[in-house]
Amino acid sequence: MVSVMWFRRDLRLEDNIALAKAFEEAEQLILVFHINPEQFLENSLNHDAFFASVWHFKEVLKKSGLHLQILYGDITKSFSDLKKSFPNWSEIYFNKDERGYGKQRDDRMREFFKKHEIAVHSYMDHYLHGAYEVQNNSGDLYKVFTPYYNKWIELEKPTPIQVMINPKKVLKEVLFKENEEKLEKMVKESSLNIHYLPGTEQAKKQLNKFIEEKIDKYKKARDYPFEDNTSRLSQYLRTGEISIRTVWNAVQKETSSESQKTFLKELCWRDFYHMIYVGNPDQKMKPIKTQFSNIQWNNDKEQFEKWKLGHTGYPLVDAAMRQLNETGWMHNRLRMIVASFLTKDLLIDWRWGERYFQKMLIDYDASSNIGGWQWAASTGTDAVPYFRVFNPTTQSEKYDPSGNFIRKYVTELSAVKNEYIHDPEKMSKEEQEAAGVIMGEHYPYPIVNHSEARKRAISVFEESKDIVQ
User: Fold this and answer.
1) d(CA 37, CA 188)
2) First vs last Cα of the chain: how many Å apart?
3) What pLDDT is attached to residue 468?
4) Which pLDDT score, from 0 to 100, does residue 243 have?
5) Residue 329 annotated among the catalytic residues of the structure
6) 438-452: average pLDDT
7) Which of 241, 325, 432, 447 maximizes the CB count within 10 A of its CB?
8) Residue 152 known to be catalytic
């Protein structure tokens, strides 16, 4: 009998639940990855990075004596073609999705597998705890992080599992050569112009580097972008090039400290936002707090373009956006700052920002990204009211006090003195000339006055609660 292992966001041979079960139980095994063109994003670092990881994984399998078959196009037709090639295919293994497109796809394909008498073996692999594993005393999903965390931290965490690879079980014949050529063409023609290092081995190096060099100072140093004391594991977790169990287990073994506990709590946030998405399946398009469904957004397209390009006149906001555009990644503290600036200072719909992050982030995870944007826009689960508005200048002074991060990405400000790096518009004409940056010519004046924008945002949010449609 023939079995299929269907890879998705689990591009690894190690600590992979579905793969371990497939090798354990299958007589003959076909390894597949399906590419759906309907999900493609044009000029997207997210898209290009993910498929670079798929191609890298395919090459890793090849070196291990295995072959990854590529399915391409309509998903039902793709698996129908596979069934025609192997009428005795009777089992399929995969790590399931509980929310978003992945759940819709899984639900659809379960019907297909049932119709074709293919037994489904699906597993929770992408999170430490699935959405329904952490419930309140009433048996409902949590809505607020702190009580969720208090319950979550008490639960026993799964440990990494061993995968016994047996190349003899795996089909080596290339079934759909044209699909493999399409993937190769996609990767070669990609616009990925960043320093992108995919793969499980690289992920493990990153984890070890974090534990050896950064974790002891994580609690205090993680908020300062120039020092870069975050784990930088998010891109590998989103592709599944390293498992969340491997990360938890490695950090848990370290000496207990406030920094260790803080990092492990960040892993809880990952599970929490996943659970929130499951409980709010429409959250990509609809606010969780329904009283903010009718906010009268300003949605100035010209200001949105300046925000995207890092031309707002607020140095830390601009540096953060340029970091995103140049590297496909942004420091977490900066994600909150630029999101607050877009939604509160510019009064631009959070969905615009979320979609741009989806396009540009190489670590894009829908549940965390949407959750973060709704948090910043005060439309999500956070208990802090809508009048929380980050001041981009004071945030800059606090988290980039020397201006080193600003100077790294907003190079036109590289010669500006520390006293003006957060407010370059305060320089006199002579000081501007000395720094080689003329305001309004080399670097823009702020596109909004923060104090006035804050008052406007609070007023609009307040008024929106009374709008009935």
Assistant:
1) 17
2) 57
3) 53
4) 98
5) no
6) 97
7) 241
8) no
